[in-house]
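Before relying on records like the one below, remember that each one covers exactly one chain. Contacts with other chains, cofactors or solvent are not represented anywhere in the record.
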Amino acid sequence: MPLLPATPESIERAAQRLRDGGIVAFPTESVYGLGAVVWNTAAVARVFEAKRRPSFDPLIVHVLDRRMLAEVAAEIPPAAETLAERFWPGPLTLIVRKRSAVPGLVTAGLETVAVRMPSHPVARALLESVGEPLAAPSANAFGYLSPTRAQHVTRALGDAVDLVLDGGPTPWGIESTIVAFAPEPTLLRPGAVAVEEIEAAIGPLRRDLSPDRATAPGQLPQHYAPRTPIHVADLTRVPAAERLRSGALTLREPLAGYAAVRVLSAAGDMREAAARFFDALHELDALGLDRIYAEPIEERGLGLAIADRLRRAQGLG
């Protein structure tokens, strides 16, 4: 599997591979995605196979502009239009009624499609070169930590991917926020756009984070998990003997006695903490520790998204 720095030449090579029915990993502003042309069901099936992702979990479709949006979305409700005007391009996914041309494999048989317009220059250049929408979930093994660097993709998926474009670490480091319109605006996954910002634009959101059937990515109870068992706890109360073989994930303060400690933001900046979150967990997960202890995160702003990922990493989503 070639891992190539994202240059105009490698982006065009990746676009040609996608047009030919391949699957390509690429950076977005949130996490790395694993893309296939949305109309090519054989290629989309390869995405599911590479990730070992169940077919009942729908994918997000990435579009470059309003023309591509119109190819996959049958209608955009007024509230969705307001959010698109405010937050696109950017890490916000909207779930709207789909056009019949969108394959059922992409939407898990639902009559809606999850769609977003990424802002990352590599993602946008790739979409422009391909000229078609891309169905692209995160480029990781299903249920495992999301990839924020190209090296996370190669370690997780290996030769199952045709090509990886290396655009460096992703700037937001956490997945897009997902809002549906069924019919009232509903939060399905907290993410890189804070709920408070969305509600300031369109009013209060209903919340449906753990439905009986997944209607958006990231809603399963067990998700975003390292291979090392992880627990959210008061890190000062963990017994000293346990600390010796455990890692600690903290927001601001390093703690003594742990085998390894990763601080998300010494300044307590939640944007920095979110960008660092998965990267820090990848680092701790690679150390062969007995467990990882994570400090509880206040559930406001971007902290809501981090706390959601921690719950699902424990299987408590």
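The radius of gyration is 19 Å.
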